[in-house]
Structure formats: C-alpha cells, structure tokens
Amino acid sequence: MAHLDWSDALNLDLPLMDDTHREFVDLLAVVAQADDAQLQPAWQALVEHTDQHFGQEDAWMASTRFASGNCHSMQHRVVLQVMREGAARAAQGDLQVLRVMASELALWFPQHAQSMDAALALHLRRVGFDPATGVVHAPQALPGELIHGCGGATCSDAGEEPVADGTHNARQAAVA
User: In this structure, are residues 29 and 131 in contact, taking their beta carbons and an 8 Å threshold?
Assistant: First the structure.
C-alpha cells in the first residue's frame, strides 16, 4: 500500500494552500494507520476536510476567472464523489475499499498538487490574489476570458477532448 508523507516537493509557496495540503496529508496518514474500529471515523474526517479543501480551491478559481467546468474543479468533484462512494461501501461492511482508496489517494495527490494545484498557485500569485481575504490585488492581470482548462501548460482548452454534451471528460482527467 502506498503511503504519503509531507515533503518540500508538495510545497507550493502559497501558505493557506500549503497548510490545507499538509492537513490532507496528515488526515490521509491517520486513515492509513487506523485499525478497523477507527477507519470509518478517520475516513469521514478526511472526506469532510477534502470537501472543504476542494471547495476552497474551487472558490479561489471562481474568483479569478476559471470557468465552473474547468478540469481542475471537475477532478475535485469526481475524486470527492469516489471518496463518498467509498464511505457508503464501508458503511455496508467493506472496509478494504477505504484502505485501497487511501493508497490510491497517496499516489494521486502529489501529481494533483504538483500539476493542477501548482498551476493554480502560480495563477493566484500572478493576479495578486489573497486567499485569506479573497481580494485580487492585480485585477489587470486577470485573464480576459474564462479559463476552461486547469490553468497549466499541460492542460489547455485545445488539449481537452469534448464529450457529446459539450463538457470535458472529467473522469479521465480525475485518473490522469
């Protein structure tokens, strides 16, 4: 099973984001170390944190001209839904699913943080966004058009494959 420890490689030089990410890593470690009796409460704490964590980042994106359907936000929605589905399965007695999911999250999170979150942190710094207050200190640096990709060089509108309903394949992005 994969395990994740905080390292400087996860530091994005945006203190509020970094603190939230450290908390995620810490809660994931609690899940990984939990015995069967403590596993579900530890998972629930991780799900609640993740809901707030992703909501916070999604709000920052919305405040700085990311489209609501951008691939970063879509990945948040998919991952959180999968985590909730894991909680439901565990409530029916399948605790192993949480252990597998925790291991997968330990593999997924560094990639997410070092790509999508790093791009978001760079964007927030460029526009002078203060995550604590929500103030954009350099509004002239805001993009003229909504950002539909993840904001990074490797994720752009041109590189996304639209699906039949005009959205982008979020499930594929969530596992990438």
Answer: no
